[in-house]
Amino acid sequence: MDLVLHLTDDQVDAIAARVAARMAEAPQRTRRPFTLREAAAEIGVSYETLRLRVRAGTVRRVPGIGKVLIPADEVARLIEGRA
Predict the structure, then answer these.
(1) Looking at residue 21, what is its pLDDT?
(2) pTM higher than 0.90, yes or no?
(3) Percentage above 70 pLDDT, the chain
(4) What average pLDDT score do residues 61-81 get?
(5) Alpha-carbon span 21 to 41, nearest angstrom
(6) Closest-CA residue to 35 (of 11, 9, 61, 17)
(7) Which of 23, 25, 31, 79 could disulfide-link to 72, CB 3.0 to 4.6 Å?
(8) H or E element that contains 35
(9) Domain residues for 32?
(10) Helix or strand (DSSP H, E) at 77
(11) Number of CB atoms found within 10 A of residue 48's CB
(12) What is the CATH number of the domain that holds 52?
């Protein structure tokens, strides 16, 4: 059995706008964290500088794991100069 929907152009446009809005939000929620080296390269600082800032607590890291990972939103914050 197939389901067939008959939508007006306005309804299709409204659905498309809602999907686009959700997709615009998604990268922040779904982007994977950066390794320390990846984050340093993305931000434009040395690996050692970023490592020291993480250790000092001025840069957030993903908690609870042994490997140092920097959340994507933290990298974005540092790039935007809100450090």
Answers:
(1) 79
(2) no
(3) 90
(4) 91
(5) 30
(6) 61
(7) 31
(8) strand 34-35
(9) 9-79
(10) helix 72-79
(11) 10
(12) 1.10.1660
Distance between CA atoms of residues 32 and 35, nearest Å: 10
φ, ψ for residue 69, nearest 5 deg: -125, 140
Cα 59 to Cα 1, 3, 24, 31, 76: the distances in Å are 54, 51, 25, 18, 12
Say yes or no to pLDDT of 63 above 60: yes
Per-residue pLDDT, 18:
87
Report the number of distinct structural domains present in the chain.
1
In this predicted structure, the answer to whether residue 71 has a pLDDT above a threshold of 80 is yes
Does 2 map to a domain? no
- φ/ψ of residue 70, rounded to 5: -105, 125
